[in-house]
Amino acid sequence: MYSLTLSHVGIYVSDMARMMDFYTRFLGFAVSDRGPNPNGEIVFMTRDSREHHQLVLVSGRPANLSFNLVNQLSLRVDSLATLKDLHEGLKHEPVSEIVTLTHGNAVSCYFRDPEYNRVELLIDTPWYVPQPHRLLLDLTLPDAELWTIIEKHVRATPGFKPQAEWKKEIEGRIAKATAERRAAQTA
Q1: How far apart, in whole angstroms, are the C-alpha atoms of residue 114 and residue 122?
Q2: Residue 133 predicted with pLDDT over 90
Q3: Average pLDDT, the chain
Q4: Around 118, how many Cα atoms within 13 Å sit in the side-chain half-sphere?
Q5: Is the same domain home to 97 and 187?
Q6: Residue 125 lies in a domain
Q7: pTM (2 d.p.)
Q8: pLDDT (0 to 100) of residue 5
Q9: 72: closest CA among 41, 36, 35, 103?
Q10: List of residues 6+ apart from 79 with CB closer than 8 A
């Protein structure tokens, strides 16, 4: 088996200064490089010193874009406390459509950034349930109460299993897909 990991994502923006301000000031990304591109400017950002860039902002988003081709940007945070803190902070930012929920395998806060891109801030849970799965949550609840609600809900969901069990299963599927790829290359 070989390793394949998503490294970064790039999005087109129309107001580079506004988008840089939001992603650096509020989410804490650092600009690792920036320079000209044919449409204006390209900015590389990271929150991980192992990655030169995790997010790329590129000038050139059409002003009259009626449909955003990027479904969402999902950013994992380090704890429920951080997720709650960011959720609270979003209330004072130029964002919209703030929604908090669980997918069973994650606790998430979704919102639309200043240019209406959907962003998800998330933490993992120790559980798996078949996707798609969605239960709205109130992140202002005390942590213990929140975890109790989530666990009770996921355990009652058909297909529930501990995350470790699911990981073992998906590793088998990945190994099978890799073997099939190799077999197809040698055929």
Answers
A1: 19
A2: yes
A3: 91
A4: 12
A5: yes
A6: yes
A7: 0.85
A8: 67
A9: 103
A10: 123
- Domain boundary among the residues 28, 50, 66 is at 66
Mean per-residue pLDDT, 16-44: 93
**Which residues are registered as beta bridge partners of 42?**
35, 58
Same domain, 47 and 113: no
Give the N- to C-terminal CA distance of the chain in Å, as an integer: 18
Consecutive H or E run containing 100: strand 96-102
What is the helix (H) or strand (E) element at residue 89, kind and residue range?
Answer: helix 80-90
User: Tokens 């002003």 sit at which residue?
Assistant: 63
Contact 7, 55 (CB under 8 A): no
Alpha-carbon torsion, ordered 60, 31, 46, 55, to 10 deg: 0
Nearest-5° Cα angle at 99, 76 to 96: 100
Same domain, 90 and 180: yes
The whole-angstrom distance between residue 112's C-alpha and the CA centroid of its chain comes to: 12
